[in-house]
Recover the amino acids of this structure.
């Protein structure tokens, strides 16, 4: 059985680490894949659900998950489509993503792909706005997985991960609202929520989320400024930690994976959020979404200094 089963789209990553220099560091991305790798590095038992193409990139991703200890029994190889990829470039406003993913293998996921029964064997199901944005059939697959999870008593975790290149804001708001009401753990970022709600302050944003039907725990991520944990009774701020950041790609995914891993290992919510906040900060110190994901000893060392 698994602590975390995640569902979404993995991507090959090409990261331009020096602006203007035509060289790209090859790595891996895809928010939900990043999150399970982060969780696995923290000691959680994880599985990933997706489709990859019958191509070299799909094989590389399968090798990555195996090397990271992530179960691939729920990964289908789709000979009719390619594995998606993206480029990361760095500008004055931070990182910029360019996607090459339309009609990718993962976007062809169907609810019938879930027949393996892995969702029901998890403690947490992890899905995201991106998992739902990539196509209508992937969106249906996410809602089917949520239905299976709820029927089996598996807790549903949703990361907002709003990518407005992938879907229009009105559709994103309607679908995310629907999904928020079905979550046990909702992980929005303040940036994403500003697009959805128009609110600029955390407490009005959390009120909007509760009005949308969120019943369980909500952790509103404030980037460098930390996070606010709302457990339904109390709201408390967790301060951001200062580190020398070079690339924030995947920091939110590291937060999600680390948080669920620590919950699965028995931490109280506030301790798990503090841990996830430190892990996410460390993940910004290297380029790419996966390579800089920290190990527990690094996270503990930062927490001890904080
Ligand atoms: O959170 C980081 C991800 O956004 C990145 O790895 C690429 O999954 C990705 C996406 O769809 O933006």
């Amino acid at each position: 059985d698994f602590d975390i089963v995640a569902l979404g789209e993995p991507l090959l990553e090409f990261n331009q680490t020096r602006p203007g220099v035509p060289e790209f560091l090859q790595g891996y991305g895809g928010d939900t894949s990043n999150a399970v790798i982060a969780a696995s590095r923290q000691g959680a038992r994880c599985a990933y659900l997706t489709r990859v193409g019958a191509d070299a990139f799909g094989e590389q991703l399968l090798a990555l998950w195996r090397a990271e200890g992530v179960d691939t029994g729920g990964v289908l190889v789709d000979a009719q489509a390619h594995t998606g990829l993206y480029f990361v470039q760095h500008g004055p406003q931070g990182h910029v993503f360019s996607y090459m993913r339309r009609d990718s293998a993962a976007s062809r996921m169907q609810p019938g792909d879930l027949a393996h029964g892995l969702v029901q064997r998890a403690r947490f199901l992890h899905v995201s706005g991106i998992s739902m944005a990539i196509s209508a059939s992937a969106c249906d697959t996410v809602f089917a997985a949520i239905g299976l999870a709820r029927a089996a008593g598996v807790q549903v975790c949703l990361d907002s991960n709003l990518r407005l290149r992938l879907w229009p804001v009105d559709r994103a708001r309607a679908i995310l609202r629907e999904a928020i009401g079905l979550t046990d753990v909702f992980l929005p970022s303040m940036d994403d929520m500003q697009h959805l709600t128009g609110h600029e302050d955390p407490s009005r944003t959390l009120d909007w989320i509760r009005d949308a039907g969120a019943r369980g725990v909500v952790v509103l991520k404030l980037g460098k400024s930390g996070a606010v944990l709302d457990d339904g009774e109390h709201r408390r701020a967790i301060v951001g930690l200062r580190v020398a950041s070079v690339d924030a790609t995947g920091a939110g995914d590291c937060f999600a994976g680390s948080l669920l891993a620590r919950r699965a290992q028995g931490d109280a919510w506030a301790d798990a959020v503090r841990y996830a906040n430190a892990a996410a900060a460390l993940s910004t110190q290297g380029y790419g979404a996966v390579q800089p994901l920290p190990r527990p000893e690094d996270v503990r060392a930062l927490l001890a200094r904080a």
Remarks:
- Residues 2-10+31-48+119-305 form a domain with the UDP-N-acetylmuramoyl-L-alanine:D-glutamate ligase fold (CATH 3.40.1190.20).
- The chain has a mean pLDDT of 97.
- Residues 11, 29-31, 34, 86, 97, 130, 163, 249-250, 252-253, 289 surround 2-keto-3-deoxygluconate (CB under 6 Å).
